[in-house]
Each structure stands twice: as structure tokens, then as C-alpha cells.
Amino acid sequence: MVASSLKLQDLIQEIREAKTQAQEREVIQKECAHIRASFRDGDPLHSHRQLAKLLYVHMLGYPAHFGQMECLKLIASPRFTDKRVGYLGAMLLLDERQDAHLLITNSIKNDLSQGIEAVQGLALCTLSAMGSAEMCRDLALEVEKLLLQPSPYVRKKAVLTAVHMIRKVPELSDIFLPPCAQLLHERHHGILLGTVTLITELCERSPAALQHFRKVVPQLVHTLRTLVMTGCSIEHSVSGVSDPFLQVQILRLLRILGRNHEESSETMNDLLAQVATNTDTSRNAGNAVLFETVLTIMDIRSAAGLRVLAVNILGRFLLNSDRNIRYVALTSLLKLVQSDHSAVQRHRPTVVECLWEPDASLSRRALELSLALVNSSNVRAMTQELQGFLESCPPDLRPDCASGILLAAERFAPTKRWHIDTILRVLTTAGTYVRDDAVANLIQLIGGAQELHAYSVRRLYSALAEDISQQPLVQVAAWCIGEYGDLLLEGTCEETEPLQVEKEEVLALLERVLQSQMSLPATRGYALTALMKLSTRLHGDNNRICQVMSIYGSCQDVELQQRAVEYNALFRKYDHLRAAVLEKMPLVERGGPQVDEEAKESKEVAQLSEAAPVPTETQASKLLDLLDLLDGPSENAQHPPPLDPTPGDTLIHLLDLPCAPLPPAPIPNLKVFEREGLQLNLSFVRPPGTPTLLLITVTATNTSGGDVTHFICQAAVPKSFQLQLQAPSGDTVPAQGGLPMTQLLRILNPNKAPLRLKLRLTYDHFGQSVQEIFEVNNLPVETWQ
């Protein structure tokens, strides 16, 4: 034995008194040398003291692996003082990655069968902390015997060890099923809490256990009702709430047992109503119980009134002064907005108030929920609130807020004018934060609303005259001024205030955009093209426009230079063609984002057939020629067969009329995922009018014997693509080939690059939570070429 070795208290004091890191390392290195020497000498009386000092050194972050074998020796010692430090060292220094941990299996097995409570408790704690799958298989029977020991101390430790074993080796569940039913009658709260946790783990990992424990739902309901109505001893009360930890765990188990099971859900409905109405909400413990109650109500097949009560509880949470509780409420309401939309709508004013929270996470969650609450009946009021928030929200929230307002306006716009006004206000407030397709969407919207051309160009001209820093707004305004500049000068719009604009003012404004340092190259391209269009829209001398084109004919930007050179050529060489080349764009018919193009075309053709049936071949040929003029020449266009004048067949022949080149062959479906009866298939459609758009329908079917619940499909594409996920048809895929779940993905591929898709699936199946992430690289070539 080394005489100069320090005691543990002296070592701690000397380390704390070290002035520098170097002094601390010197003290520890010196003491570790003494500890090594003591281990080599094999001093049996003081080895536990040396190991205790080594464990303190390990807790400070210094290497202590050389003490692993000493832990095994102390565990095998008959002295309790040695076993206590030995087991503590095993929990700190050993883990599954080291083979040495298997050497203590026999020592733990012997200690579990000794009958000494303190030693059994040490062995069970060590096994539950670092027991590997091999150790769990070897010692499962010993732990199962201890579950019914008379000592509450040992039973509680054994239950917690069984939880660890189930998590490590789920197939051991059959061993622990029989004792659990007896342990549910325990009055000891610690044992009962551990038993409920053990049953929860068994049900989540074994369908057989889930079916087995549904029989004990009445007993669990009785236990929870006793806790809520009669209370318990003071030692288990937290802020006046009877053992909230046990209540929360029982509610979590009831949620698992009642999911997709009508009888169990019916049994617990009255109890859940009692818990929801009798729990004190003035303390955080009561709020925890209430929140778990809400989750249980929403996950089981509860009554409609009970679900409304749960939503109202979350609404009260929104008024709580604790930010964490408000965040939990917003997150939960966001999950419920799809299934209980009308109930969540009642709390819309409170949700909107949360937008102005100083906490960024609360404000973001409130924004997501507010956007989810927008529908056709409240779109005006909600959009006004969101636009007010957009003006003062933090910069990191502006992209999400602006994009959300634009999507909501696109889906639920009551009129085209309101839609245009909404987008203009967003572009004026946060134009630099909108998505890339906002400019194209607004141009398409304005182009398709012929009655609003004069109104739109005047609004955009006024906005552009006030601010040229918002690039998307400048681009749209330049396009509209170039396209409808004649309406701007006419002054015939009755929907806006009188605006007197001269030609020179319009040209000066566009030149200002061209010369501004804030203008992007794309914006300058819009302004240059607008000037060129005005040469045919506005009457008078075009010398000023010609001078601008000449100046930009030597611009350093290649794109602008090419445009200017081509426009100069139109003036000098092809002036007789300039008016025809620069004529106005044709009207663009545009539907909402949910409109299916094929159904829309069929509807238009049906209306055409009802209004003007075409009975002869000559009329059909004339119609074909007209469509060819609109769509461009087609050398391979085939004339339709003579139409039968029978009214009943007119629609069929009109649908067969080749108004464009022959449609491409249908894209084959693709199966991308299959596991335990759950299958995921992708079907593809490319709308004829927008070849860069791909519509992918994700269809999930389930042929297994259990429902797939909480199903969420998320997708990601490379940065060169634009992806929009529509809301799924549900979050449950019924068993036995029931109604499939579908979800629509809209992918914009402007560069027609090869498409790669990454999918992440999360769902619950047979009591287990599953997450799958995989990449789909074998998409058909027709999806992107």
C-alpha cells in the first residue's frame, strides 16, 4: 500500500484548490499513479476507497478505464462496502461496447438470488443501467421472480429493470405478462407507477400484449378515478394534485389501449370528462395532467362533446401566463385543426393574439396555426390580421408569413380584385421575402382578369412610383405597364381615384428602374421589355425609347445587351413587324390550386357541346383549324372523323377532338415502399398546359391486420425544384385493404432536370412507432423530360 495516497475528501479539496488547469492535472496524475500501484499490490481492505477516488476523477472527465477490472473484483467480494462501490463503478465505467461487462453476469445472478434486499437492489440498479441484450436474456427469469417478492423495495427495482429489459429485448414480453396483472393491485405508488410504465412498453411493442391488457382498462379507470376524486396521502401530492406522475402515466397507457378500440374508449369516456373538469389548473402539475387528458381524448374514439371539451382546455392554455403552456397548446391545436376544424376555429381570436408574442418560437407556431385556420368564410378577416402582422414581424418569419398569405389568397380568394389587392399589399410590404413563383402567379392572375387590367396597371404604377426597392413588385409593375400602358394613359378606370399620367412620366419611371442600383438584372430585363412594348402601346415619337435601346446595346450584362440589340434590330430592320411582334398577350384562363386541369377541360368542352353542338364534318374541321391557330402549327395533326349528329354522342366526339398534338402516353405508376402490409405507390400526371409541373399522388394502402395510425408523409427535392405538399386525406390507413390514404405533391421543374425525391414516413403500427427515410431515384423518365 502506498502511504502517500490521499483520502477522497482530501483529494477533492486539493483539486478544488488548484489555481490552474495544469495544477489540477498534476494532482490527478499523481493520485492516479498511487491508485494504479494500489491495484497492482492487491490491497483488499482499501481497494474500494481507491476505486471511489478513481470514479471522482472519471466524473471530472479524465481517463479511468484501468479501473474496470477492479470493479469486477469488488462486485464478487462478499463485503457490502466493496459491492456498493463495485456496482457504482460498473455503472459508470462499463457499457455494452466493452466485452468486460459480460463478466459480471454471474455475479449479478448470484446477488439476485441471495435474498439480501440491499444487495439485490444494487444488482438490479446496475442491470437496468448498463445491461446489454445478452445480459437481459440470461437474467430475465431471475428478475421475473423478484417481481412478486414481499419486499416493496425489491419489487420496485425489479419492475424498473423489467422496463429496461423490454426496451432492449422486446421478445421477452411473454415472460412479464403474468406478473403485471397482479402488480396492478399494488397500493405502493412507486410499484404501481413502474407497473404502468412496464405495461405501456409491452403494449407499444407487442400486439398480443396490447390485446391482453385491454381487459384491465376498467381497473385502470378505477385507479385513476380514485386518485382524482378521493386523493391520496400528502407524501404523494404535488401542489395539491394527487400523484400527477401516476395520473399522467395511466392516461398515457389508456391512450394506447383505447386507440382504434370502441369498447375501451367507451369505458374511459366518463373518467376523462371527470379528470378534465376536476383537475386544478392553477399549478403546473394540474396542467400536465390536463394536457395528457387532452392527448388521450384526441387519440381514442371519444365522443364529440368530449373532443370539444379537449379543444376548449387547449384554448384556456392559450390564456395562461406560462409561455411553455401556450406553446404546447398551439402545437396541439395545430395537430387537431384537420380533424376538428370547427372546434379550433372558436379560438381563432386568441390564436391571432399570440402572433405578437415576443417569444419567436411562440410567434412562429401561432403563425402556422393561423394559416391553417384560414378558410373561405374567414379569408378576408384572417388575411387582414396576417398582413398587419407581416408589417411588423421579425425578418426570419417574413418569408413564411408572406408565402402563407399568398397560398391562402390563391385557395380562398372571394374575387379576383381582392386577390390582386392582397398580393399587391404583400409585395409592397415584404416583396423581397416572397417565393420565386409569386411574380409569375400574379402576372398570370392579372392577365386572366380582363376587366381588371386598367385597375391593376394603375395600382401598380402608383406603387412603383412610391417604392422601387421591392424587386418582385417592380417586375410585376414593369410587365403590366408594358402590357397595358395604353389603359394607364386613357384614365377610364372608375374603380380608382383619377390619375393623370403622361407618356414622359411613364418612360421616366421605367428609366429610373433601369438606372437604379437596387434593380436586379431580371428586373432591368422586365423594364427594358416594358419600354419596348410601350413603343406600340403609346402614340407619339419613339426616339427616347430608341436611345435607351442603343445605350443598353453595349451593356456589360449579356442578357440585357442581347435584348437591347434585338429590340434595336426591330426598330431599324423590321419596323413593319414590330406591332405584330409586340402585340398584347392573350387572355390566360387560370384556376385555383386544387383544380384538376383535365376535369376543367372536360367541363369546358361539355359546356361548349351544350351551347353549340357541331353536327357536320365541315364545322369540326373549321374548329380544328381555329385551335391550330391558337396552339401553333402541327404537321402531324389528324382531322377527326365525321361527328354523329346524335345529341347524346356529341360530347363524346368533342372530347375526342384533337385540339392539340396527341397527348403523351400515361406515366406508369411506381411502388416505392412496402413493409408489414403497408404499401406506398406513386402515380404521376403532367398537365398539358404546364409541362414543367408534375403532379404526384401518393397512395398508401394497408393489407395487414392492424390500422396504421398517425401516418405522416414528408418529401424533399433538390434546390432547383419547387415542392408543394397538399393536405393528406387523413392520417389513418385502415387495415384489411380499407380506404387508402392519398396526398398530392406538386413539383415545379423549370430546368427539366432529372427528378430525385426523398421521402420520410412516420406512423404507428401494431403498437410501435416507425420512421422510414428513403430516396426514390428510379422515377420514370417521363416525369421530367
UniProtKB/TrEMBL annotation:
<dbReference type="InterPro" id="IPR016024">
    <property type="entry name" value="ARM-type_fold"/>
</dbReference>
<keyword id="KW-0653">Protein transport</keyword>
<dbReference type="InterPro" id="IPR011989">
    <property type="entry name" value="ARM-like"/>
</dbReference>
<dbReference type="GO" id="GO:0030121">
    <property type="term" value="C:AP-1 adaptor complex"/>
</dbReference>
<dbReference type="InterPro" id="IPR002553">
    <property type="entry name" value="Clathrin/coatomer_adapt-like_N"/>
</dbReference>
<dbReference type="GO" id="GO:0006886">
    <property type="term" value="P:intracellular protein transport"/>
</dbReference>
<dbReference type="GO" id="GO:0016192">
    <property type="term" value="P:vesicle-mediated transport"/>
</dbReference>
<dbReference type="InterPro" id="IPR008152">
    <property type="entry name" value="Clathrin_a/b/g-adaptin_app_Ig"/>
</dbReference>
<dbReference type="InterPro" id="IPR008153">
    <property type="entry name" value="GAE_dom"/>
</dbReference>
<feature type="domain" description="GAE">
    <location>
        <begin position="665"/>
        <end position="780"/>
    </location>
</feature>
<keyword id="KW-0968">Cytoplasmic vesicle</keyword>
<dbReference type="GO" id="GO:0045202">
    <property type="term" value="C:synapse"/>
</dbReference>
<dbReference type="Pfam" id="PF02883">
    <property type="entry name" value="Alpha_adaptinC2"/>
</dbReference>
<feature type="coiled-coil region">
    <location>
        <begin position="1"/>
        <end position="28"/>
    </location>
</feature>
<keyword id="KW-0175">Coiled coil</keyword>
<keyword id="KW-0472">Membrane</keyword>
<dbReference type="InterPro" id="IPR017107">
    <property type="entry name" value="AP1_complex_gsu"/>
</dbReference>
<keyword id="KW-0333">Golgi apparatus</keyword>
<feature type="region of interest" description="Disordered">
    <location>
        <begin position="592"/>
        <end position="616"/>
    </location>
</feature>
<dbReference type="Pfam" id="PF01602">
    <property type="entry name" value="Adaptin_N"/>
</dbReference>
<protein>
    <recommendedName>
        <fullName>AP-1 complex subunit gamma</fullName>
    </recommendedName>
</protein>
<comment type="similarity">
    <text>Belongs to the adaptor complexes large subunit family.</text>
</comment>
<keyword id="KW-0813">Transport</keyword>
<dbReference type="InterPro" id="IPR050840">
    <property type="entry name" value="Adaptor_Complx_Large_Subunit"/>
</dbReference>
<dbReference type="InterPro" id="IPR013041">
    <property type="entry name" value="Clathrin_app_Ig-like_sf"/>
</dbReference>
